[in-house]
Amino acid sequence: MTLIGRSRERAVEALSLDSPDTRNALSAALVGELADALAACDRDDGVRAVLLTHTGTTFCAGADLRDPPAPDAVVGLLRSVVALRKPVVARVTGQVRAGGLGLLAACDIAAAAHGAGFAFTEVRIGVAPAVITLPLLPRTDPRALARYYLTGERFDAAEAARIGLVTAAGDDVDTVLAPVLDGLRRSAPEALAETKRLLTARVLEAFDREAADLTALSARLFASAPAREGMTAFLERRDPPWVV
């Protein structure tokens, strides 16, 4: 069973997270399959850009708590999006949580429908948004990140656009993306690659400098007693004991 749908229209390869039963959570299998699909797009001269989208009502629910990927696999996936020679455009029409926000931030351009919703829910289950900080901090308003990282509050697509998490929001996400994809199709492939290299240099520096420490932090927190209790409470749909 494939977890990534693939289609192509006028040199734009659409990769669709296609595990709606798990709300497109980042399982070990989905992370591996998406990384392979991205690598194939990078090698294919017929691909001008990648459109990352989803099936179902959730773009990505974050880490799959029943089949979590290794932290270094998540880092590798996020880095592959940032380092891909082709622009990666995210199309969001549903909910995005936790690690899914890191995937969104790794993309070069992102558009969300007004019905989309976002939340950094890590603190509520006893962990921290560690490795996803790598693409998020260089691209998102730091004061807003402090609020949403620390509280786990939900926010809407307009707020996501205001703080730089997404590029634009609108009632019809495909209308928002139409001029973006047209512009990419009109651009020379070599020029796109070099321009993306300029734009992502600082983000890749953060990966090179901080990835090892953040991977270790993520592994330590996920193995901790509070995280085990928090994840159990989440799966059992109850509050963990620290809620007052």
UniProtKB/TrEMBL annotation:
Source organism (scientific name): Streptomyces tropicalis
InterPro entries the UniProt entry points to: ClpP/crotonase-like_dom_sf (IPR029045), Enoyl-CoA_hydra/iso (IPR001753), Enoyl-CoA_hydra_C (IPR014748), Enoyl-CoA_Hydratase/Isomerase (IPR051683)
Lineage, opening ranks: Bacteria, Bacillati, Actinomycetota, Actinomycetes, Kitasatosporales
Entry's family note: Belongs to the enoyl-CoA hydratase/isomerase family.
Membrane spanning stretches: none
Domain of life assignment: Bacteria
CDD domains: crotonase-like (cd06558)
Protein's UniProt name: Enoyl-CoA hydratase family protein
